[in-house]
Design goal:
It is a single chain. The protein is of the alpha+beta class and 430 residues long. The protein has 15 helices and ten strands. The strands form two sheets. Strands 2-1-5-4-3 form a five-stranded antiparallel β-sheet, sandwiched between helices. The chain is elongated.
């Protein structure tokens, strides 16, 4: 809960811990850590993980649910579980007007809590219930404001500085350098857009719970889910990987679905999150369409695709593929010739380096290149022709195509795009 009053709740937890002289922790009903007293070095693994990661591992929460804690009317003793790394503890459900809001935890090992101590703890529940109820409503209102201002910050049309100032003035975001990470899933005909957005939201909420309050802003925009994280560079990469893992967990039942996270460079000012959004969006697009990139794609690693992503409209990418490349893609040997051309051009026209990368003899490379020239109608000794077809290959990748469907090629032929290749001006490929 980002909106709860830290002081009110923390003071109650600290006061109870002082009275009992034992560690005390408070979780919400989803087992996310909300407040905790000073912890001794000998706390168990589960409590330590809950504090460090702000939530307990799933196998722990499943086991606790099996103990019936959500239905308990009063305190309930939870036995030790060595397999999970848990010592014995007492759980006191926190309710307000019969609504379960969270759990108060008291360690019960090695000395069990007395009846008098449990009565004291039960008395604190009377105050914690209303505080958590108020916190839930404040949190809901705060999240609505945060989402609206985050959308203004990243998408406008308002000035980004104005949205950044409002986020600061309402204490919705902390100070510090920030990065933007965008989670995208390839469109699926098997899952509705609404269902996909629910999955994406659930994935980011899981990551959000592990981040300090006010260090994580979130926005849903179509088929992408965006997070603004106030973290260092190493931490940004780690959180981006966590976003990817959470999305894959949420979509584990969908076979063959591509998931990617685009990551911006770090920004010094909150207003620059808008530029970070553009960087992360472009990186995610390239990551979804270009096979050479991994699942987490930093913007700074995509090279020339950074420029192309700024000037190519995704909806029009396929229509921008130049005719020479279309002719090559339509050839029966395209699956062999296109990778050859890509390697040759990516190596700056260095035949020796390209042949080595392809594990073929240089004469075999020349034969393929001459064939490419004949089919495409280009002169690979011409810088202009090389530039056009190299850009075409990058745009073709960004269009999401691998080998264009036959129906598209037939359509292009009918439209007159696939003309016979013109006679090449030269055969001096070296």
């Amino acid at each position: 809960m980002a909106g709860f009053d830290v002081n009110e709740i923390q003071e109650l937890i600290d006061a109870l811990a002082t009275e009992l002289d034992k560690p005390v922790g408070l979780d919400d009903r989803s087992f996310r850590a909300l407040a905790y007293s000073s912890q001794p070095d000998d706390i168990d693994d589960v409590r330590r993980d809950s504090i460090l990661h702000r939530e307990a591992p799933k196998q722990v929460t499943d086991w606790l649910e099996d103990q019936g804690i959500s239905k308990a009317g009063s305190w309930i003793r939870i036995p030790a579980n060595a397999e999970l790394g848990m010592v014995g503890r007492v759980c006191l459900p926190v309710r307000f007007r019969e609504t379960l809001l969270g759990y108060l935890w008291l360690l019960d090992d090695p000395e069990p809590l007395s009846g008098a101590e449990l009565e004291k703890a039960q008395g604190y529940i009377v105050d914690l219930g209303p505080e958590l109820f108020r916190a839930r409503h404040l949190d809901s209102e705060e999240r609505v404001r945060e989402a609206d201002l985050t959308r203004q910050l990243l998408l406008g049309p308002e000035d980004a500085e104005a949205a950044a100032s409002e986020l600061r003035s309402q204490h919705l975001v902390a100070d510090g350098r920030l990065g933007v990470a965008i989670l995208r899933l390839a469109p699926s005909t098997r899952v509705s857009g609404k269902s996909m957005r629910v999955r994406l939201t659930a994935a980011l909420e899981k990551v959000r719970r592990s981040v300090a309050p006010h260090h994580f802003l979130m926005m849903i925009n179509g088929d992408e889910t965006c997070a603004v994280l106030l973290v260092g560079e190493d931490e940004l990469q780690r959180r981006a990987q966590a976003m990817l893992n959470a999305a894959n967990d949420e979509c584990a039942d969908l076979e063959g679905l591509s998931t990617v996270v685009g990551v911006s460079e770090l920004k010094d000012e909150l207003r620059d999150a808008r530029l970070g959004y553009t960087e992360a969006r472009d990186a995610a697009w390239v990551g979804l369409t270009v096979p050479e990139f991994s699942d987490v794609v930093p913007w700074k690693t995509i090279g020339a695709y950074r420029t192309l992503a700024r000037i190519v409209d995704p909806a029009r990418a396929a229509s921008l593929i130049p005719d020479p490349l279309l002719r090559l893609l339509a050839d029966r040997d395209a699956e062999n010739l296109v990778p050859t051309l890509e390697v040759y051009l990516d190596n700056g026209g260095d035949a020796q380096a390209a042949a080595g990368a392809l594990f073929i003899h240089r004469s075999s490379l020349y034969n393929r290149l001459h064939r490419i020239e004949d089919i495409a109608g280009v002169d690979l000794s011409s810088g202009e022709d090389r530039l056009e077809i190299h850009l075409g290959l990058r745009i073709w990748r960004m269009s999401g195509s691998r080998w264009p469907p036959e129906s598209n090629l037939e359509s292009d032929a009918r439209a007159g795009r696939l003309q016979a290749a013109p006679v090449r001006k030269s055969q001096q490929v070296r």
